[in-house]
Amino acid sequence: MKEFLQYASLNVLGMIGLSCYILADTFFVSRGLGANGLTALNLAVPVYSFVHGCGIMFGMGGATKYSIYIGQKEYKNANKVFSNTVYSMAVLSIFFFAAGIFFSEKITLLLGADAEVFADTKTYLQVILLFAPAFMTNDTLICFVRNDGNPRLSMIAMLTGSLSNIVLDYVFIFPLNMGMFGAVFATGLAPVISIIILSKHWITGQKRMHIENRLRLEKPKLEPGLTANTVSLGIPSLVTEFASGIVMIVFNSIILRLEGNIGVAAYGVVANLSLVVISVYTGIAQGTQPILSKAYGRGNNNDIKQLLKYAITAMLLISCCIYIIFSIFTAPIAGIFNSEGDMQLQRIAEMGLRIYFTAIPFAGFNIIISTYFTSTERALPAQIISLSRGMLLIVPMSFLMSFLLGMTGVWLSYPVTEGIVALMGVIFYKKFTLKNLPV
After folding, report:
1. Domain that holds residue 152
2. pTM above the 0.90 mark?
């Protein structure tokens, strides 16, 4: 229990900080640039979700394998996993950087930006892609430093990066009047600051307080088989992050047809608040992962079962608190992001907050059970759960329910999808693991 609380609480705080990268942009853009700025931001955010998801994919996949080897005391193989993961991540990040230079205009058009919001959307998207190497390096190192016995430093790095983003957002948008470029430039600098803090793990060579510090980069040598294994374990984490981007793209296209740019701006409020809530569950899941993987490496099934129970219990308690807050303070929360007092935006956002967030206990369970499967090297059920909630179910469900119920159907499609996937998760748990664990 003590170890779970330490890892989970520190990681939840850090993940909330990480998710506030975009929430801070949402708040300051809504105040400084109004509804059109909010629309442009929401159209570009899916690209950030994909970049961030790829970083988490390498970080979680590699760190999971790393922890399993540590549990088995195979330290040489553990370090090989770290080196291979970092080099593989670096190669992919170069492609994102190149896309930012050569294809940002075409991607902006594909995301549905019209003439009114095209320039701001392109600016946000291009800068995010140019900073992709920093985002992905930060995501990967956070996972490895946490799994190398230093969750406190990971949390400090994430929170400091987020705090710097909030401060720089204000400075760049208001006193310096840098507009959308200022918002996204502040976001891009945040992971750079976080990486500088994470470097302390190597610079000081800490051995005290049970910090192991075994992470060492070996000579560059990519091993395709090891990379494939890392990616397969990390795909559920990628899909969990990328799901937000996919849902936003699909919902944006539907809402543009139903409510226009104001509807997209309102959805941006709901979606970006959802990213923060989901980060809490991701924090619980990723905080539990290192100790789950080490227990799995040692073959300790009782600890595995107990850790899963702790994670789900914590998730349910937090879900109740969050939904009560959103239910009581719906109007004030929506109003924070509605600086122009637009009644249509307020109405749509309030309805969305009440309906959309009924999904949170199901979403929390799906994230935790997917990470549980990944942590115990059961990649297939984890991938099925993640793909179902990220693409396979949510996309057709949103089109179907919006056709039947309009805007109400758009909001309902998310909780319905998460509920169906949660049922699948229970079935997979009984089929793949329960029979193999001691009662």
Report:
1. 2-436
2. no
